[in-house]
Amino acid sequence: MLNFEYRNPVKILFGKGQISKIGKEIPADARILMTYGGGSIKRNGVYDQVRSALAGRSFAEFGGIEPNPRYETLMKAVEIVRAEKIDFLLAVGGGSVLDGTKFIAAAAPFQGDPWDIVLKKAPVTSAVPLGTVLTLPATGSEMNNCAVISHAARQEKLPFASDLVYPQFSVLDPETTFSLPPRQISNGIVDAFVHVMEQYLTFPADAPLQDRLAEAILLTLIEEGPKTLAEPRNYEARANFMWCATMALNGLIGQGVPQDWATHMIGHEITALCGLDHGQTLAIVLPALLEVQRERKKAKLLQYAERVWGITSGTEEERMAEAIRRTREFFERVGVPTRLSAYGVAPAAVCSIPERLERRGWVALGESGEVTPAVVNRVLAVAA
Ligand code: NZQ
Ligand code: ZN
């Protein structure tokens, strides 16, 4: 096992009716800015629940944070935070609202061009404290220190991380997710699944606990994912899915083990260029990447085949191929196509990706740095 330091400070308030408790989690004299997306929270009652939990408090609002949150939009909120001396941010929505709010939190006190936080990984030395009410299980943003921000004018989508943007608390009430359209549930299942795979399907590190935690999340997603899609108002299924998504990317399963993340980096490029949903890009890239990298990932791929899919017979080649086939079939079964062509994306639309990565100096992605631009090219060819 590799050395690690781990501290996750996020307080989770899980379950029905937990939004009513947020008043106690935010300092009494705070000047609060509530951030949200395109309006789903006004239609499903979450906005009203938040308002009544904060009745009588100093409270401003900023709506309109779009999926794949844009720097341009977020900077408008930064101006409000600065002008109104906001000292607490409350993000209410999906991963995009949470990520966007993390950026606002870091950008408001930042000296210089805040895009540098994302582009140049400029150190974040101060951030406005934030809390979240999550309405879409998928990203894990509610319990981690990362955010992914898009710059529309530059056609870029890039991550940043800082311990200062961990939420102080996150409310996870599965009932707030009953209004989600099937497409977002489907995306969320794939996103959570791939988060686990990025931290698990690498090479053995003598970390059987991390392996079994990862396998537990994958097996639970395989069980509960289709159930929560078929029965959108089944509270238990939704609660189990929601907790899986949080556990998939709150840092725990990735401690002390190598991590990949090439699928995410390639996926972000596809979103930046073609606008596909995050989950859709992952469903396209992961099976193709496993195919191309199967020899290097052999030991874990065989373990995954056996422990997650119960594949015990056949040659090593056959077992690996079957595990990749089952993975692809699972994504398709939960409603997310796994080929670029299924979204009408021609190979020409993504052919600049290896070069874009190279220009950024990202020439050695993956757990061993073996995913070069040439390998990315092969992955995109398999994904066509
Ligand atoms: O904007 P509103 O009106 O709220 O509608 C949203 C949006 O259109 C809707 N929605 C959310 N909750 C709803 C709802 N509709 C009905 N009922 C509800 N309860 O869903 C749509 C998609 O929302 P979005 O927040 O974009 O989805 P998601 O949570 O999948 O977030 C995706 C973003 O997170 C980033 C992705 O790259 C992408 O930008 N990621 C963040 C990570 C992190 N912070 O650690 C890791 C991930 O790998 C990922 O990269
Ligand atoms: Zn993701």
Q: Tell me the strand order in the biggest sheet.
A: 1-8-5-4-2-3
Largest sheet: 6 strands, parallel
Query: What class, by secondary structure content?
Result: alpha/beta
Q: Give the total of domains.
A: 2
Strand content: 5-15%
Mean pLDDT: 98
N-C termini distance: 37 Å
Q: Which range best describes the helical content: under 10%, 10-25%, 25-40%, 40-55%, 55-70% or over 70%?
A: 40-55%
The unique ligands bound to this protein are: 5,6-dihydroxy-NADP, zinc ion
Query: Globular, elongated, flat, extended or rod-shaped: what is the shape?
Result: globular
Could you name the ranges where pLDDT drops below 50 across 5 or more consecutive residues?
A: none
Instruction: Give the H and E element order.
Output: EHEHHEHEHHEEEEHHHHHHHHHH
Number of DSSP helices? 16
Rg, rounded, reads 20 Å
Give the second-level CATH assignment, the architecture of the largest domain. Answer: Up-down Bundle
In the CATH hierarchy, the third-tier topology of the largest domain is known as Dehydroquinate synthase-like, alpha domain
CATH class of the largest domain: Mainly Alpha
Name the CATH homologous superfamily of the largest domain.
Dehydroquinate synthase-like - alpha domain
